[in-house]
């Protein structure tokens, strides 16, 4: 199906919807959903909405729903992730949910995370600060997404360095997260 989607584009959306609707296994259904999520189509919105309604009570499956959307390599993903961070089923009290949305976005989706505006860096920094008091281990793990800052083009490198500096200046940062921020500053990339 992924080959058909790559070769036929919009013409294969119907096939992906058929697989989504008739998949005998969760693996097949998730594969179809991930492919549909990469499109800008009504089928994308319909599949995401139907999947959410069907599985909203199952945290593990819902984590997949968040991760699939955060992993879409598209210019619109940053806005989608910002909206999902305000979703009723997103909470910083669920570490798996944070990893699914923010971890996938910042560590597995370089196109969206390194948005030219720097908003991806700001989203991660705000999440780290909000999460740090309750779960410093996860907050410090998320900071590792800033580890390649020295390798970036100058404009993005400067935005990421400034975001790290903002994190370093934040009062009350946990020892774990503070140590990781310092390591990212000294990381060679």
Structural class assignment:
mainly alpha
The CA-CA distance between the termini, in Å, is 36 Å
Biggest sheet descriptor: none
Total domains, how many? 2
Ranges where pLDDT stays below 50 over 5 or more residues in a row are none
The CATH topology label of the largest domain is Zincin-like fold
Q: What is Rg?
A: 18 Å
What is the second-level CATH architecture of the largest domain?
Answer: Alpha Horseshoe
- Mean pLDDT across all amino acids: 96
Task: Look at the structure and give the CATH class of the largest domain.
Answer: Mainly Alpha
Number of helices: 12
What's the total count of β strands?
0
Kindly estimate the percentage of residues that lie in beta strands according to DSSP.
under 5%
Q: What letter string, H or E per element, gives the SSE order? A: HHHHHHHHHHHH
């Amino acid at each position: 199906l992924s080959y058909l989607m790559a070769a036929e584009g919009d013409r294969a959306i119907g096939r992906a919807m058929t697989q989504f609707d008739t998949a005998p296994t969760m693996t097949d259904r998730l594969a179809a959903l991930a492919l549909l999520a990469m499109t800008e189509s009504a089928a994308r919105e319909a599949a995401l909405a139907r999947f959410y309604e069907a599985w909203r009570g199952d945290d593990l499956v819902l984590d997949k729903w968040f991760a699939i959307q955060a992993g879409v390599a598209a210019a619109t993903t940053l806005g989608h992730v910002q909206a999902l961070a305000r979703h009723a089923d997103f909470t910083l009290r669920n570490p798996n949910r944070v990893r699914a949305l923010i971890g996938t976005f910042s560590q597995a989706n370089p196109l969206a995370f390194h948005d030219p505006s720097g908003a991806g860096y700001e989203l991660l920094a705000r999440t780290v600060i909000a999460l740090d008091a309750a779960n410093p281990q996860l907050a410090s793990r998320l900071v590792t997404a800033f580890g390649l800052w020295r390798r970036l083009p100058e404009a993005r490198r400067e935005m990421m360095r400034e975001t790290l500096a903002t994190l370093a200046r934040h009062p009350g940062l946990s020892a774990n997260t503070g140590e990781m921020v310092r390591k990212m500053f000294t990381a060679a990339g």
